[in-house]
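for the writeup, i need someone to sanity check this before i put it in the appendix. the sequnce is what the collaborator sent (i think, or maybe the updated version? ugh). structure was predicted straight from it, no edits. if anything looks off just tell me and ill rerun, i have time this weekend
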Amino acid sequence: MFHAAGAGTQIILVGDADQLPSVGPGAVLSELIASGRIPVARLDQVFRQDTGSLIAANAKRIRHGCSSLEYGEDFQFIDSPVISDSAGLIARLYMEEIRKYGVDNVALLSPYRQKTETGVNALNQMLREMVNPDAGGKAEALCGRRKFRTGDKVMQVKNLDDVSNGDVGYIKKIRHEGNDTAVFVDFGEGRVKRYDSSELDMLDLGYASTIHKSQGSEYQSVIINLQCAHFVMLTRPLVYTAITRGKSRVIIVGERKALHIAIGKTDTEKRGTCLASRLRDLG
């Protein structure tokens, strides 16, 4: 991007350095700010949540390492120390929330994709059977252990043409063509994509998502699972990123100890990129 900018071009980067760093190496935004060589403007007016929102108030507390949070109608914590119990509870809450806000306006977020019953893969399978059950002979397509069904909510997991990693759409049609299967997904705005059997690994069910995948999105209601079993993933940026996806309501299901561990863990936020010091040396 920078190589493509001509001399005298002004580049404006917009982001939140308190959210999760990139999956790949580096911490570009936070290092640019820390260098002191780049002019920085801080936007402090909240538009995603209403005035007086506990979501916004608690996000500020978490950002400053405070684990004494306030709870109310728009920010709730439900104690559930047993993961198997959490999975069933999360599923019931999800169905209640989508009846209230609609399936496109509710996010179910988990730190892990696999490993536990509250991992994204397990939750997606459970929720699909609740939201889009096999009724009336709906067409299906298989990709390894994954099954896709007409009407499923799906997420793109790789960039493809005008569909980006993280975009969500719905399977409108599955057509069996000899030994192959064609799956047609509507991503909105006239973007209908056809996938053959060899391309289905670009799709995943989209009822639940990892917190990493949720960055850049917003929803009326967000359900988050935090368990001590997620210890490796529990960090302050993870929790901050998750709760700031919610506009009207955030519900955390799990263990309070896990929430406190995450808010207090900052050691994984630092990456030894030396970008800030190298920028300072340029002066």
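Residues 83-101 form the longest helix (19 residues). The mean pLDDT is 87.
thx in advance!!
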